[in-house]
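Researcher: We're teaching a course module on how sequence relates to structure. For the next exercise, students receive a sequence and then see the predicted structure as tokens, so they can try to spot secondary structure elements on their own. Here is the exercise chain.
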Amino acid sequence: MTRSKLGAMALLVAAFVLGALSGGAVMALADRGPPSPGTRGERLGFVERLERDLALSPSQREAVQAVVERHRPKMDSLWKEVAPRFDTARAEVRQEINDLLTADQRQTFTELEARHKARRRGAKGRPRVP
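Model: And here is the predicted structure for the students to work with:
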């Protein structure tokens, strides 16, 4: 494999890793999964993970839930501000990667992106809201 192809491959892998990490972080902040029965739409995924991983008592769980709810307006506001810039940056990275690929690689890259989007939507049970 030529040096330029190795460099392109390295750039592609780095972009995927960076995209996955940053996308995961942003999605974790913006996670708004469907509410469990009997709830008011709280961020139960996050709170339930803390409850499980930290063995929270019922009173601690309620307090954590209150913290999440208290900060929700600020988080929503920040996400609305950042999401368009993040989406633009992600589109730029994908376009630059696409420009480096052969026709066959572009087709595979497009298929990989489609599968990734489908998994994200399936995991959330709903389409992503920018």
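Model: If you want an answer key for the exercise: Confidence is low (pLDDT under 50) at residues 29-43, 126-130. The chain has four helices and no strands.
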